[in-house]
Design brief:
By secondary structure, the chain is α/β, with parallel strands linked by helices. It has 2 domains: 1-30 and 76-117 and 161-239, Rossmann fold (3-Layer(aba) Sandwich), CATH 3.40.50.1220; 35-74 and 120-157, SIR2/SIRT2 'Small Domain', CATH 3.30.1600. The chain contains 11 helices and 9 strands. The chain has helices at residues 2-12, 23-26, 39-42, 45-48, 51-56, 58-73, 79-90, 104-107, 166-178, 196-203, 230-238; strands spanning 16-20, 94-98, 114-115, 118-125, 131-133, 153-157, 181-185, 207-211, 224-226. It has a 6-stranded parallel β-sheet, with helices on both faces. Helix 1 (2-12) packs across helix 11 and helix 7 runs parallel beside helix 11 (230-238). The structure holds ligand BV8 and zinc ion. The site of zinc ion has 8 residues, from loops. Zinc ion (ZN) binds at residues 125, 127-128, 130, 146, 148-149, 151.
């Protein structure tokens, strides 16, 4: 039974890196990117999640992010988010790295979090270092300008072709290289350099546990695959 073996691996490991993607938020009602009904099925990433798309049509890009913000605001953390947060509060040595831009890990009470792709609920200036939490219900038409320098404001997320926040990526890589176990939850493993965190952990000798109802890029190198939804499989793994 992979669940029993995975529980033992996680209980015995003194250092664990947990790597999450859109799938951990799926049961909360947040659409994934590449699955059936995924965001990239209806929109093309290059059309919306790039600086070029934003420069070309900021109104369209803001409409998409405004829609996603309103959607996430109506969602709640699910049992997988909550079990992870409780587990991290109850023990040492766990580093949680997420690709998600939603705030469900934060709202579940996660004590610490490495966010590789930024945050949906923050605006930032496209030129200076101005940042602000998004006022609730803000729908931007016309697209907002920076109150400090007048340049266009944008969502504080990492778009395709953009560098990830260096401090977050370095912290994630350091945790991966020291991990004895790597728990991957709800990610296809398709987007780099974030997806490389799991490879780094594996190469450093970590046991690899994957929780996903589908197939992922990691399946060939996984030690223990738990096939099913995170909300169901993650809580019993961690208690
Ligand atoms: C960069 C934020 C270069 C915006 C996102 C090799 C190395 C480096 C780069 C590249 C490379 N090859 C290609 C690239 C370019 C590109 C890339 O990786 N492209 C891919 C598509 C091939 N990478 C980049 O552009 C990155 N930047 O490399 O810059 C550079 C270098 C120097 C100087 C300047 C620049 C930036 C990538 C970040 C893009 N931003 N999002 C936004 O959200 O709007 S990406 C997007 O994909 C999300 O962040 C998401 O988190 C991420 C990964 O997707 P997943 O989370 O895995 O979601 P997905 O739908 O794919 O999978 C869901 C999984 O959940 C599935 O497995 C499913 O089965 C499972 N699931 C479903 N239900 C459940 C479940 N699991 C559990 N329970 C359930 N109930
Ligand atoms: Zn500015």
């Amino acid at each position: 039974m992979p669940e029993v073996a995975a529980r033992a691996v996680l209980a015995e490991a003194s250092r664990v890196v947990v790597f999450t993607g859109a799938g951990i938020s799926a049961e909360s009602g947040v659409p994934t990117f590449r699955g059936p009904g995924g965001l990239w099925k209806t929109f093309k990433p290059e059309q919306l999640a790039t600086a070029e798309a934003f420069a070309k049509d900021p109104k369209l890009v803001w409409e998409w992010y405004g829609w996603r913000r309103a959607l996430v605001a109506g969602c709640e953390p699910n049992p997988a988010h909550r079990a992870l947060a409780a587990w991290m509060r109850a023990r040492q040595g766990v580093t949680l790295v997420t690709q998600n831009v939603d705030d469900l890990h934060e709202r579940a009470g996660t004590p610490s979090l490495i966010k590789l792709h930024g945050s949906l609920s923050v605006d930032r200036c496209s030129r200076c270092d101005y940042r602000r939490d998004v006022p609730p219900g803000a729908l931007y038409d016309p697209p907002p300008l920076c109150p400090a320098c007048g340049a266009p404001l944008r969502p504080d997320v990492v778009w395709f072709g953009e560098m990830l926040p260096e401090d977050q990526l370095v912290a994630a890589e350091q945790a991966a290289c020291r991990a004895e176990a790597c728990l991957v939850i709800g990610t296809s493993g398709a987007v780099y350099p974030a997806a490389g965190i799991v490879h780094a952990a594996r190469e450093a000798g970590a046991r690899l546990i994957v929780v996903d109802p589908g197939t992922t890029e990691y399946d060939r190198m996984t030690d223990l695959k738990l096939t099913g939804p995170a909300g169901e499989l993650v809580p019993p793994l961690l208690c």
